[in-house]
Amino acid sequence: LLGALNGSFEVPAGEGARRIHLDYLRDAEAGALAEALSRKFALGLNDETRDLIIQQFEGNPYFISSVLRAAHDKGRQVASFGDFQKLYVDELLGGRIHQRFGRLLEEVVPSPVLRRGLLRVLHESASNAGGKAPVEALSKRLGVEPAEVVRVMKDLHAHELAGFYSTYVETTPGVVWRDYLKAVYRLHVAVEPRALVVADTLVEALKRAPQTMARHYRRESALKLG
């Protein structure tokens, strides 16, 4: 359906259909989903860890479900920040989240060589201030015609992995996507040892957790005061 709406098939894009943009779940809705899955899978999820999952995944129901199902499949609890982040890194580097992003990138860029180049460009773009890169510069870096860059970036835009704005592209600022980009870049472009990448990714996720929750609680306090 996504391919049809974005003109990947012979039928005119969007003929007889209209797009409906679906936002991610609000905190209360995401919390209800996490609690329902925790009860179903007997995961021992507490309020603090539930809130971290919601904030780190920005209300994305796929990510929430993926990690909690992984906990069930592996017979693990999610009773602390550490429990969750270990599961998160597992899913990011080899589980459902990893497979989801991997399939999307393979679909958009079938060539392994070009895909590695794209990972490099997207990672460097995300690391730059503002996370933007001109289309012409991407064409030169990837060694392909501007029209092919436009095609790739339109597809990434459709999958909400990059923003395409005619003359420049911008890597989507989602936490999970950028964590994936950084880890996969280190593994498959910089060719760093997997154990080192796993350890560093886990340490970064654990360090970020209290900061994420502090921002969340400040927003909640500001809303109540307002």
Quick structural gist:
The protein has about 230 residues and is mostly helical. It has helices at about 1-5, 25-40, 45-55, 60-75, 80-95, 95-110, 110-125, 135-140, 145-160, 175-190, 195-225; strands spanning about 130-135, 160-165, 170.
Protein model, in words:
By secondary structure, the protein is mainly alpha-helical. The chain is built from eleven helices and three strands. The protein has a three-stranded antiparallel β-sheet. Helix 2 runs parallel beside helix 4. The chain is globular, with a radius of gyration of 19 Å.
Relevant terms:
mainly alpha; 226 residues; 4% strand
Q: What's the Cα radius of gyration?
A: 19 Å
Number of helices: 11
Strand content: under 5%
Q: What's the overall average pLDDT, rounded? A: 86
| Main sheet attributes: strand count, strand direction, barrel closure | 3 strands, antiparallel
Low-confidence segments, given as residue ranges, are 7-14
By secondary-structure content and strand pairing, the structural class works out as mainly alpha
Shape: globular
Rounded to the nearest angstrom, the distance between the terminal CA atoms is: 42 Å
* Fraction of helical residues: 55-70%
Give the tally of β-strands.
3
Give me the side-by-side strand order of the main sheet.
Answer: 1-3-2
SSE order: HHHHHHHEHHEEHH
